[in-house]
Amino acid sequence: MTTYSEVHVRQADSGSGICGACCTSLFGMGIFVSMLGVLGWNEQSSVCSSRALAAAEEAVEAVDCDARPEMNKGSLVHFDCPLARESLPEWTPGSFGIDGAAEAFRVSAVRVTQTVEMLQCKEEVETHKRKQGDKVIETKTYTYTKEWSDREVESNGFKAWSVDDAWQALSRGCGGDFKGNRPFPVRSAQRHAQRLVAGNFDVTRHVGRVAADTPIDFLSSWHGWRFQLGGETATVARSAIYCGCRPEEPDRNQRDRVPQARPGGTEDGLGETPSSPQTPDVMIFSLRRPPEVPTLSP
């Protein structure tokens, strides 16, 4: 088992039953009144939104890409224009500080995001209370598992460091050699164009609404390339850079294929070699761009 439980027994507070029932009733009444208010607000908001959309449909004016924005100041306009070249800067892994594979791809996009995940040890605590006569019995259960997370999981406060039985549960869930989750050597980040221009219109304020959910594929000549990143040996795969795992595996748990140390290998430069024992400090990070590169303006 990867869980550890401890039980605490304490004397129930006198009169707590009556007080609890009254408090629960008052709380329920408060929730009921609040929900009536929320329901009324939601209905009013829906009506206002419908009226606003109807008014906008009547007032909107279609304009050409070469229209002068100052001539339409204060008006509701619609335009369908290609993005200017300055809105599509060129990005590389070096843009995110990945100098060891700085030329592994080049892509022009409004926005590029880098997602970093690490397989970390996680402690979950569940508390259950029940009354037995004049006593309250509280059971706390600590569960230890390895999970992927794009945020650092603080492990210094784990129960396992102070209770031997909890440590046994941790060693079964996260490995007997677990010493604590390490900090991320590279963090998630995003880069975007300084200006977003379509036709003659500056729409920079909308740059954050541009989706970046299409994976960026690394150049095939870089597949299998290994380099040092934050003291780790990192490897370039088809659309991710990773340490100690193969990101193409859907469940990320199959470790039967790892890359050969073959710098500049071909696209199929992933060979069959025995996997080394995995520890919770495995990381993977990938980069993504908008689904389509808009047509450049003249």
TrEMBL record:
Residues that span the membrane, as ranges: 18-41
Main subcellular location: membrane
Region called Disordered, residue ranges: 246-298
Superkingdom of origin: Eukaryota
Subcellular location: Endomembrane system; Endoplasmic reticulum membrane; Nucleus envelope
Annotated keywords: Endoplasmic reticulum, Membrane, Nucleus, Transmembrane, Transmembrane helix
InterPro entries: TMEM43_fam
Membrane-topology descriptor: Multi-pass membrane protein
Residue spans of biased composition, Basic and acidic residues class: 246-259
Family: Belongs to the TMEM43 family.
PANTHER family named among the record's database cross-references: PTHR13416, TRANSMEMBRANE PROTEIN 43 (PTHR13416:SF2)
Name of the molecule in the record: Uncharacterized protein
Organism expressing this protein natively: Prorocentrum cordatum
